[in-house]
Amino acid sequence: MNKVGPLRMAAAILGVLVANSSPALAVSPDGAPTLDRLLRQFQGSAPQPEAEVRLDAWVEAGSDSPEMVVRIEPEGRTKLIADPGITITPSEREGLRWRIAVPYRYVDATIDYFPGPAALRMPFVAGDQKPIELRVEYAYCVVDYQCFFGEETLSVATRLP
Fold first, then answer.
1. Which of 52, 57, 119, 145 is the one with CA 20 to 30 A from 136?
2. Cα 160 to Cα 66: distance, rounded to the nearest angstrom
3. Where are the domains of the chain?
4. Is the whole-model pTM more than 0.70?
5. Structure letter (DSSP) for residue 94
6. How far apart are alpha carbons 50 and 77 in whole angstroms?
7. At residue 109, what are phi and psi to the nearest 5 degrees?
């Protein structure tokens, strides 16, 4: 009597299950199911929830100098993670001086998620009206699914309205 190894046994069982599972299963010229069809048939995917993070930035007049305002808003079933939080790194350029330490970090280790949109204010002094480039890094979770890191570069006009 021939001994059948565990791998051959698993392949045989899979073949029987597939052959009996769908009469419309595509087959190769020799009558065997095609690998491509098998992969499509048994490929599962998690539902994709409606989730997004929207970023916006603009300049407002501050008490002593203009302020760059960066707003990060979770939408749908998204939450912003409070630790590691949000980091804003402006590109260096001549004629621009920040009145706070940069890169600017907004972190709250006492909570898991920020309670809603985050609006960060960064006062600056500029000798010209050239746009400011900002790299915004953040972490977010899609509720009940998975967490991710996000990064976006914004170019913001420095002219006050």
1. 145
2. 8
3. 6-42, 51-156
4. no
5. T
6. 6
7. -75, -5
Q: Quickly list DSSP for 18-62.
A: HHHH-TT--B-TTSPBPHHHHHHHH--------EEEEEEEEEEE-
Return the sign of the alpha-carbon dihedral for residues 7, 13, 17, 19. positive
Does domain 51-156 fall under CATH 2.60.40.1230? My reply is yes
- pLDDT tens digit sequence for 108-128: 999 999 999 999 999 999 888
Question: Which pLDDT score is estimated for 124?
Answer: 95
Q: Taking Cα atoms as reference points, which of 102, 101, 97 lies closest to residue 126?
A: 97
Q: Which structure tokens are listed for 149?
A: 């890191």
d(CA 159, CA 123): 14
